[in-house]
Each structure stands twice: as C-alpha cells, then as structure tokens.
C-alpha cells in the first residue's frame, strides 16, 4: 500500500492510488453515503461506502470482515485483532472485481482502513463542529527492523508533503454528506 511505503516504492504506488480515487463517480458516492447514513450506525457509514466504491457487491454482508481487516491495522491492534484481520483479508480480496494487479488490489483494500478510522472520526468531528485532524498521527517503520515511529499530524490536517492524503476531498465529501443526513436522524 502506498501509505505504508516511502521512497521509490511510494513514488511507484502513489499514482495508482490517485488514479483509483479519480475514477470514483462522485454522484454515486453521494448517493451511497446518504443511503448508509439514513439507517446505519455512524461507525459503519464510511467503511460501507468505501466497500461499495471499491467494488464489493454487498458491503453490508461483509461489514464484519471489513471491520476485522481495518481493526488489524489500527495502532493498538493486539494479536487477536491482527489474526482476525489476516483471516478477513483474502475474503475481502475475493470480493474485489477481477483485478490482476496486486498493487492495485492492495490499495483498494487500503481504502477500507483509511476510510474506516479517519473518515468516521471526521464525521464525528463535523457533527460536533470541531476543527481537529481526523487522523492525529500516523505510523512508519524503519527499513531495517526496529520499533514503529509515530508521526504527529496534529498541526497538519490530512498530512503534508509526499504523504499528504490523496483522498482528502473524498473523505470530506463523505463526511459532509453523512453529516447532512445524520443531523436529520433522531436516533443519533
């Protein structure tokens, strides 16, 4: 996944991510968000939307796998969560449209975890009228082993430089459409 790489590999993967995101039909995205925001829990709106947009035929039927996969990538994932995520990954990969390029498939699945945590937080922040980063930090790992490095994004909404979030406009669009619907729901 582009997000998990630096240097030449990131430079190779980033255009794949940008091309995939540019191919999304934004009118379709708005419709999907509004459908899910009408009845789904806040925590499911963004991952279900991303699931639909990457080609999973019935994201609601796969929500447990999506959440298991995305939880395995979380900074605080324990061994059991990682195991569940590893088990869910091939099932989600099998749900993707016929894609031969594994870098493309990996980055489509990457949209699930990127969207689940950050966009869900962005929805909550917008509901509360707060101006905080949707992802307060990110992680990187040294090439030659060693512990993870946490990078604070507190002052940089959506990051900066070569790792600036390529999905920012889409995340903001999902959050805006979801908040529009959620503010009219009585059960939120």
Tell me the strand order in the biggest sheet. 1-2
Q: Which structural class fits the helix and strand makeup?
A: mainly alpha
User: Can you count the helices?
Assistant: 7
Task: List low-confidence stretches.
Answer: none
What multimeric state do the chains show?
single chain
Shape: globular
Helix fraction bin: 55-70%
Give a count of the beta strands, DSSP E runs of length 2 or more. 2
Distance between the amino and carboxyl termini:
34 Å
Mean pLDDT, as a whole number? 86
Main beta-sheet strand count, sense and barrel state:
2 strands, antiparallel
How are the SSEs placed, and which strands pair?
Blueprint: H1 7-22, H2 26-39, H3 42-53, H4 63-73, H5 79-95, H6 102-127, E1 137-140, E2 149-152, H7 168-182
Antiparallel strand pairs: 1-2
Tags for this model:
mainly alpha; 2 strands; two-stranded antiparallel ribbon; single chain; 7 helices; 188 residues; globular
């Amino acid at each position: 996944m582009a997000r998990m790489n630096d240097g030449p590999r990131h430079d190779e993967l980033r255009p794949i991510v940008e091309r995939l995101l540019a191919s999304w039909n934004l009118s379709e995205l708005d419709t999907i968000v509004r459908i899910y925001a009408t009845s789904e829990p806040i925590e499911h709106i963004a991952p279900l939307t991303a699931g639909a947009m990457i080609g999973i035929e019935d994201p609601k039927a796969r929500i447990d796998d999506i959440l298991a996969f995305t939880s395995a990538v979380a900074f605080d994932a324990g061994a059991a969560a990682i195991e569940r995520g590893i088990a869910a990954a091939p099932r989600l990969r099998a749900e993707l449209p016929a894609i031969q390029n594994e870098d493309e498939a990996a980055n489509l699945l990457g949209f699930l975890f990127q969207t689940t945590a950050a966009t869900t937080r962005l929805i909550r922040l917008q509901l509360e009228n707060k101006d905080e980063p949707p992802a307060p930090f990110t992680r990187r790992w040294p090439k030659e082993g060693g512990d993870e490095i946490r990078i604070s994004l507190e002052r940089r909404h959506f990051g900066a430089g070569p790792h600036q979030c390529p999905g920012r406009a889409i995340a903001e669009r999902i959050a805006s459409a979801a908040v529009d619907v959620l503010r009219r729901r009585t059960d939120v």
